[in-house]
Amino acid sequence: MDHRSMAAAAMSMSMFGRSKQKKDGERSSSSIGNQQAAAAALPPRMRKGPWTEEEDAQLVWFVRLFGERRWDFLAKVSGLRRTGKSCRLRWVNYLHPGLRRGRITPDEERLILELHAQYGSRWSRIARSLPGRTDNEIKNYWRTRTRKQKASASSSSTVTTTASCSGSPSSGSGRLTAASSSAVTESALRESGGGDDDEDAELDEASTTAASQHRHQQQQQQESSYTMDQFWNEIAAADAAASYMVDGWGGAGHPAAAEPPLPSSPVWEYCSDYSLWRIDDEEYYKKMLDAS
DNA sequence: AAAATGTGCAACCGCAACAAG
DNA sequence: GCTTGTTGCGGTTGCACATTT
């Protein structure tokens, strides 16, 4: 690993950032500027909120240097004004290689239901059985799912009441219709003994409700799914490409040559003179930090 | 077209467990 | 055994985008 490959990582980070992430980054970048101006005379404060692409790239770099441990140390050394906790969270939930992006598949959904029945809300335990999925992701999915079910249940009861009172088949929106149909399916399943517990019924409900959108969702998933494997592959590819570059960032013929790879940090200048890349001793960094 | 509402998800917070000194 | 620092976890919040009215 050398500084060129880390620059490649920085390049790749900007490639996989989603639109929302980009917007967050833009907002955060401007706030960084404001904060930097305001905090010039103040002791450095920890940043909060969405991560910028620059921060991501910086974090990826230092995690690749030091490994996924000592997050507080890593946060300090990296120059990121983030807590170790925040760094870890960002890495685990967003930057870790092998993470899957995109919607939860029906198979995963089934597995989550099984595991939730088994372990309850122990999301990290459930996540271990779903490669590429984080506990946060599963937790969010579950939350969304239960929220939908609550809404579905309340609206279906409303529809049932309304229908029984007014007898009007046209009452209710399309959403309401979908919700009520799913509720009907769920109750039918319960009555028919199609599911041996609520979880199964819920699963079928979810599947039925989504049936009309399933193909569309799968298509969306194929389009939107961008795994961290792909990301790291791109880094590797960029590594290879970078090996053709001449020394320094003025190398011609490469898109990345025009701009420096990463933002400045307390150790950045040190890094850029190449001497960093001969270092693998943590102690050296401690001394460096003490000296700065 | 604009406002209101819903949805998805990244990130924060507080707590607990664990390890090292 | 106590203190301190680190890590991991679950619950919750807030924001941006999408959809509906």
Automatic annotation (TrEMBL):
Superkingdom field: Eukaryota
Pfam families listed in its UniProt record: Myb_DNA-binding
Protein location: Nucleus
Domain named HTH myb-type: residues: 44-95, 96-150
Bias kind Acidic residues: ranges: 194-205
Main location (coarse class): nucleus
Compositionally biased intervals (Polar residues): 28-37
Residue ranges, compositional bias (Low complexity): 151-187, 206-222
Region: Disordered, residue numbers: 13-48, 138-226
InterPro entries attached to this UniProt entry: EOBI/EOBII-like_plant, Homeodomain-like_sf, Myb_dom, SANT/Myb
Record's keyword terms, sorted: DNA-binding, Nucleus, Repeat, Transcription, Transcription regulation
Protein name in UniProt: Uncharacterized protein
GO MF term (any one): sequence-specific DNA binding
Residue ranges constituting the Myb-like domain according to the UniProt record: 43-95, 96-146
Species: Panicum virgatum
Entry GO CC: nucleus
